[in-house]
């Protein structure tokens, strides 16, 4: 202790006496009857002392189990002890009948120190022990309690004992800086000087002017505004000190001799007491420039300690980074052995890392799933410093790499998760060691329990955009390295023998998680930052040999693929899954089997349903070949495309009553079964859509994007509802923005139809008003009702049919908007790009007829251009699979009188037969007539 610090001991009613303490005094604590003491030496070594020796236990012993650790704080309960290490670990031992050791059990006695695993990684600021309960405070003010709770002394709202540290939610954002425990009560002090107490109140020790017990923290109203600076609990009393008044206040039982003056046995509210000495003058006599007080309440006496300067009498804490220390590392002003020891102390402990880089503006006291409490600019600043000293940086990197496999997989607080935000930014160097460490970090993240992963994703979503983007780039860089090595291994081993190492997929999983966070937060980072171009080489090799095993694993991380690579993976899988048979002439070659799908144009739907109902599961793995009976068309893709286009158009007609139609032009499932005779309508429609995806065709149902989200197990949002029902969507958005307390709504929805029904969105919803506090829940339930609850059966049937119609599964790698384009096609075209992809027979692109054709075509209205597209291909949409799936040909039919002939199309081979007209006017007239009077596309 520093010179000038004093201990004052009040003995009975006599005056206190001054006792000078040595500069390096030992710290000790004892249980209530002083039969057991802990003694902490100045060098951090711990020993135990018993009033009486026994056969199995000497009177004094060094706690050898903690011999290699530097102890910074100790605490004693009635029959248990606690010790906090400078490296952040908390150890407990002794009696455990109420779970007061916090080790997850209630064994009777644990004589040797045990690590409190549940607090691993929490940067603890202080520990305290009660009679049979324990508490801790983190550096960011989170309070954890465990042990006996028969009076509510754990502050958890009940009287159930706990055998593991449990977060006191009622003290969230309280900014707790100190906690003290009595026999069966607890007091906490906030940074603003407020005091809360809870637990046993029978002696008035809670200060609430009553003898009631309190199971939740309650502010001591009599001390409101007093800015208490220090607190401590005796067995059945509480003592506080208000620095601004230089006064001590007491409440509780005063019959144990702690007080100098006469008091009622039970003091129910805080009242000032006469100090044994004038504390202010006592400190000033020894030259303390800035006085400070620590009080310690005991069974038979209470202590007051003065401090000089800014020395912290309360806390000797865990190791955290300090600017001066880091500067000493960089400047090599200390022996490297000392520097190395300090680096190991901090970077071998997730608690010490989590306690460093705290936001110094007190924002860290608000730590939650949304607020990390980390000042990321300080992390960046620290990295900028250590990278200048290669030796120091390598030492930091080495300790981090050793720590990574030991990180906790079950964090109990957002404070645990800070380490996952900090470490990537200390591993930015593009070298093998950093790459390996980031792979190990990814592995540690993927071992987190679901709740921990959710917390980390929330913290990621609230990172500043610049730091979030940097995080993405880091994991993208690691993913590039991994996939480059994978590509090289495939070249050596061959695609058929290669098996992707699961450990290597960790960074890919993190990158995918970051993409999902990015999508939920409005795409702050462009999706190109997630693409890993090196995956293209792997896809090309695997596609060439029809190897899908590697592609299946990679498809779990769709963010790394550009859209055309996803299509390549999907088409490769579809090609591989096709049932094959031996070639009739060359039996060493296997060719896809064909599913001959015959329909009549005048009863198309009936024939489609008949074919689907009689099909076996194996039929859906065959190559679809559609024939319109009575027509000569051979299906090379366009005929089957026509089948899907006409079927979708027919089913969307109001006369079929299959779907609900909306003013937005979109269709959705009915809330009740359709009035048609066939009960399997949506099973069959889903099968039709699945077949289209498997056969690389479009099926242009005007579904909202919500359908494609549901297919991919993603939840539709209010934005999706506004897409389907614009007026309703805007109304719900206004409700979210309304600042009124009462919105004149309840949790019901009006069903449309002939008889308007009221549907409750939640149990007893008609009696629950929508308010400012629950309006988001109302909107979420409304969206859920429209897209999920009200159409549960039709969508389940649709999904069942879809999975039957499409045996492939890699389509789940597509994003909703991509899947929508694949199935519905493109409605906005780059006609000039289409021109560039056309081929010619008996023509060249410089022939006058061709030049006239494109001049006429580009001047046509958009509607006429789409009609020509339908004339050629059977659909007025372009395939979402790209222009390579739509390359048509213009051919000279070589007729004798071109001006007398009409152009005609063969959708079998996507060919436009265009005679050599003498001028543009004739060409335009003939072309418009042909496309406007075309009645069917299935002919040759």
TrEMBL record:
Residues 616-940 form the HECT domain. SUPFAM superfamilies: Hect, E3 ligase catalytic domain, RCC1/BLIP-II. It comes from the Eukaryota. Residues 1-13 have a biased composition (Basic residues). RCC repeats lie at residues 88-140, 141-192, 193-244. The active site is at 908 (glycyl thioester intermediate). The keyword Glycoprotein does not apply. Residues 14-25 have a biased composition (Basic and acidic residues). PANTHER family: HECT DOMAIN-CONTAINING PROTEIN, UBIQUITIN-PROTEIN LIGASE E3A-RELATED. This is Probable E3 ubiquitin-protein ligase HERC4. One of its GO terms (cellular component) is cytoplasm. GO terms for molecular function: ubiquitin protein ligase activity. Residues 1-25 are annotated as: Disordered. InterPro entries: HECT_dom, Hect_E3_ubiquitin_ligase, RCC1-like_dom, RCC1/BLIP-II, Reg_chr_condens, Ub-ligase/GTPase-reg. It comes from Taeniopygia guttata (Zebra finch). GO terms for biological process: protein ubiquitination; ubiquitin-dependent protein catabolic process. The keyword Transferase applies. Keywords: Repeat, Transferase, Ubl conjugation pathway. SMART domains: HECTc.
């Amino acid at each position: 202790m520093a010179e000038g610090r004093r201990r004052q001991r009040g003995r009975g009613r006599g005056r206190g006496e001054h006792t000078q303490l040595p500069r390096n005094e030992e710290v000790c604590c004892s249980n209530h009857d002083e039969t057991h003491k802990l003694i902490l030496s100045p060098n951090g070594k711990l020993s135990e002392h018993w009033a009486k020796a026994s056969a199995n236990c000497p009177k004094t012993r060094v706690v050898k189990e903690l011999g290699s650790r530097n102890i910074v704080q100790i605490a004693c309960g009635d029959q248990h002890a606690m010790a906090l290490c400078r490296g952040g670990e908390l150890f407990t031992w002794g009696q455990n009948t109420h779970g007061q050791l916090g080790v997850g059990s209630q064994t009777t006695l644990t004589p040797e120190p045990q690590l409190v695993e549940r607090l691993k990684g929490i940067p603890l600021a202080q520990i305290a022990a009660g009679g049979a309960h324990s508490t801790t405070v983190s550096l960011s003010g989170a309070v954890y309690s465990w042990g006996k709770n028969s009076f509510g002394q754990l502050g958890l709202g009940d009287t159930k004992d706990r055998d593991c540290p449990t977060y006191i939610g009622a003290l969230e954002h309280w900014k707790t800086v100190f906690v003290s425990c009595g026999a069966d009560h607890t007091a906490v002090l906030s940074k603003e000087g407020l005091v809360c107490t809870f637990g046993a109140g029978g002696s008035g020790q809670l200060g609430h002017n009553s003898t009631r017990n309190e199971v939740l923290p309650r502010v001591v109203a009599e001390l409101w505004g007093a800015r208490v600076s220090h607190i401590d609990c005796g067995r059945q009393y509480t003592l506080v000190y208000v620095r601004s008044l230089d006064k001590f206040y007491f409440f509780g039982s005063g019959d144990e001799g702690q007080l100098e003056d006469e008091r009622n046995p039970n003091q129910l509210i805080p009242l000032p007491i006469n100090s044994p000495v004038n504390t202010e003058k006592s400190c000033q006599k020894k030259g303390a420039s800035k006085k400070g007080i620590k009080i310690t309440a005991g069974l038979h006496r209470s202590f007051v300690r003065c401090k000089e300067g800014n020395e912290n009498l309360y806390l000797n804490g865990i190791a955290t980074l300090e600017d001066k220390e880091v500067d000493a590392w960089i400047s090599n002003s200390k022996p490297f052995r000392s520097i190395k020891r300090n680096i190991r102390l901090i970077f071998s402990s997730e608690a010490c890392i989590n306690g460093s880089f705290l936001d110094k503006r007190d924002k860290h006291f608000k730590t939650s799933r949304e607020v990390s409490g980390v000042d990321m600019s300080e992390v960046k600043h620290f990295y900028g410093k250590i990278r200048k000293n290669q030796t120091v940086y390598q030492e930091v990197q080495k300790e981090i790499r050793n720590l990574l496999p030991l990180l906790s997989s079950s964090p109990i607080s957002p404070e645990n998760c800070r380490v996952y935000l900090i470490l990537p930014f200390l591993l930015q160097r593009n070298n093998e060691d950093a790459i390996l460490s980031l792979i190990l970090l990814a592995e540690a993240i993927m071992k987190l329990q679901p709740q921990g992963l959710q917390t980390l994703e929330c913290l990621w979503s609230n990172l500043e955009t610049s730091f979030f983007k940097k995080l993405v780039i880091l994991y993208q860089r690691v993913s590039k390295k991994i996939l480059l090595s994978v590509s090289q291994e495939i070249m050596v081993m061959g695609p058929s023998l290669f098996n992707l190492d699961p450990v290597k997929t960790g960074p890919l999983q993190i990158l995918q998680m970051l993409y999902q966070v990015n999508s939920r937060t409005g795409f702050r980072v462009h999706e190109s930052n997630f693409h890993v171009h090196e995956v293209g080489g792997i896809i090309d090799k695997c596609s060439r040999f029809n190897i899908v095993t590697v592609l299946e694993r990679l498809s779990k991380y769709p963010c790394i693929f550009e859209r055309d690579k996803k299509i390549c993976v999907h088409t490769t899988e579809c090609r591989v899954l096709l049932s094959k048979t031996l070639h009739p002439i060359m039996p060493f070659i296997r060719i896809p089997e064909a599913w001959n799908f015959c329909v009549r144009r005048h009863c198309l739907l009936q024939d489609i349903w008949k074919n689907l109902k009689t099909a076996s599961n194996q039929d859906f793995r065959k190559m679809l070949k559609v024939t319109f009976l009575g027509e000569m068309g051979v299906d090379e893709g366009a005929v089957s495309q026509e089948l899907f286009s006409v079927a979708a158009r027919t089913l969307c007609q109001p006369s079929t009553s299959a779907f609900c139609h909306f003013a937005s032009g979109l269709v959705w499932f009915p809330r009740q079964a359709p009035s048609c005779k066939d009960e399997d309508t949506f099973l069959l429609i889903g099968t039709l859509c699945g077949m289209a995806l498997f056969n690389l065709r479009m099926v242009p149902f005007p579904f909202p994007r919500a359908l494609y989200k549901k297919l991919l197990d993603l939840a539709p949002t209010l934005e999706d509802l506004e897409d389907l029902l614009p007026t309703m969507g805007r109304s719900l958005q206004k409700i979210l923005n309304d600042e009124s307390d009462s919105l004149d709504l309840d949790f019901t929805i009006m069903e449309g139809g002939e008889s308007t029904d009221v549907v409750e969105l939640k149990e007893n919803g008609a009696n629950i008003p929508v308010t400012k506090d629950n309006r988001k829940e109302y909107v979420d339930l409304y969206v859920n009702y429209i897209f999920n609850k009200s159409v549960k059966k039709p969508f389940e049937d649709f999904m069942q049919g879809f999975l039957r119609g499409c045996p492939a599964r890699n389509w789940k790698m597509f994003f909703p908007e991509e899947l929508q384009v694949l199935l519905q096609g493109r409605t906005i075209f780059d006609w000039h790009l289409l021109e560039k992809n056309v081929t010619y027979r008996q023509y060249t692109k410089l022939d006058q007829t061709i030049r006239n054709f494109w001049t006429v075509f580009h001047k046509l209205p958009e509607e006429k251009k789409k009609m020509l597209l339908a004339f050629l291909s059977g659909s007025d949409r372009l395939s979402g699979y790209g222009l390579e799936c739509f390359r048509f040909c213009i051919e000279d039919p070589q007729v004798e009188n071109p001006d007398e002939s009409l152009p005609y199309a063969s959708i079998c081979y996507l060919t436009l037969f265009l005679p050599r007209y003498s001028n543009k006017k004739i060409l335009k007239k003939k072309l418009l007539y042909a496309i406007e009077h075309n009645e069917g596309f299935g002919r040759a």
